[in-house]
Design goal:
six-stranded parallel β-sheet; Rossmann fold; 2 domains; about 40% helix; seven-stranded parallel β-sheet; 13 helices
Length: about 375
């Protein structure tokens, strides 16, 4: 460890891609480095949000997702073996290292930290509704090993029922806010208005319902940006018989152009199959002044205030979702007020506040002081 470093932190995230949880961790790692900590980052090669962070020391995992479930499972098991052995081999037994486990997926890393007598800090982004044996195991490991758990919403604290949980909301960087500010423009001059969803290409994300809403509103454009390959996107478009006014894009490194050109952000996650613990795309859209339509459950309720910066609608209620979209896009005064409130709400979730709260938790752990309760935007 450098003589000037405040401490050493080993961060663990299983799959480096362009989804929400690695995006959040990337900002945290950059913040920890700026606060004088040394950071070791154990993750897959990507590409993704965790790639190329200056100052971080990388330890790459041999893990990636594959359409073959058997091959994915084999890679997962191998990566867990790496997560168990690599930290034990990397750090001396007397070395003071805090284990920062991002999501419940790197469960072997938590076991390695616990077995070596080190403090384990979880950053929880998910709550599993359908619990298969592996998810049950991940939760058991978390409950056994976590000295503290950072949760991205009060909903997640309540669902996980963890006594060690503290709410620290996700955030957006100064750069994101600057690009959002520069990208805002009047929507009234556009020939066609646009509805945007950014999500995984999974049925529980309501991608079929999104296509049905598009079919009912042919006067508007619908854009789905999916965390999936071009081949998977093409297969999906055929499977749902995507209407003429709907376009589907594969994984994007830069989503700013999509937010810039959109008018409304929707999240169609089906609440009986999955509940968002926060909703990074909702927050990002709000920074662009996009009113949001979200499910009436989970973390999005802490972002979207009914009839103030969006609506809470059951995604199975296709007709109601379509009515809310059409109402917003045909009532300029209502839209403008919701857009203003969306921007104001997003500005509460700044990166400096989040990182300061996380650093406070880490320093409290290291000093064995009492836990702080910070980080909740008001």
């Amino acid at each position: 460890m450098s003589a000037r470093a405040k401490g050493r932190i080993a961060c663990f995230h299983l799959l480096n891609n362009y989804s929400g949880s690695p995006n959040v961790l990337a900002g945290v790692v950059e913040g920890l480095l700026a606060h004088g900590y040394e950071v070791d980052l154990f993750t897959s090669r990507g590409p993704g949000h965790l790639s190329g962070i200056r100052g971080a020391r990388y330890h790459h995992l041999a893990y990636s997702w594959h359409r073959s479930r058997k091959l994915t499972a084999a890679r997962y098991c191998f990566a867990q073996a790496q997560l168990l052995l690599a930290p034990l081999l990397t750090y001396r037994s007397d070395e003071d290292v805090l284990f920062y486990v991002n999501t419940q997926a790197p469960l072997a890393a938590a076991l390695a930290g616990w077995a070596s007598g080190r403090q384990v800090l979880y950053h929880l982004h998910e709550h599993y509704i359908v619990k298969d044996p592996l998810k049950r195991l991940a939760k058991l490991v978390k409950e056994r090993t976590a000295a503290k758990a950072i949760c991205v919403s009060q909903y997640l604290v309540d669902q996980e029922a963890t006594a060690t949980g503290v709410v620290i909301y996700n955030s957006l960087s100064d750069d994101f806010f600057e690009r959002a500010k520069a990208g805002r423009k009047k929507k009234s001059g556009k020939a066609r208005r646009c509805v945007l969803q950014i999500s995984a290409l999974r049925n529980y994300k309501g991608i079929g319902q999104f296509a049905e809403v598009a079919r009912r509103l042919p006067q508007y454009d619908f854009i789905l940006v999916a965390d999936a390959s071009a081949k998977e996107v093409a297969e999906y478009a055929v499977a749902v018989r995507a209407p003429f006014n709907m376009r589907v894009f594969s994984t994007q490194r830069d989503v700013h152009p999509f937010y810039r050109d959109a008018d409304i952000l929707v999240n169609m996650t089906l609440p009986d199959l999955c509940r968002e613990s926060f909703g990074m795309t909702i927050l990002e859209g709000m920074a662009y002044g996009l009113p949001a339509i979200v499910p009436p459950a989970g973390g999005p309720l802490e972002l979207v205030d009914e009839e103030k910066n969006g609506y809470r609608v059951d995604p199975y209620a296709i007709g109601t979702v379509a009515e809310k979209i059409d109402f917003l896009l045909t009532h300029d005064s209502v839209y403008s007020e919701m857009s203003r409130r969306a921007r104001e709400k997003a500005e509460r979730f700044d990166r400096e506040r989040q990182v300061a709260a996380i650093v406070g938790e880490i320093e409290a752990m290291r000093s064995a002081d009492r836990w702080s309760a910070g980080g909740i935007p008001r």
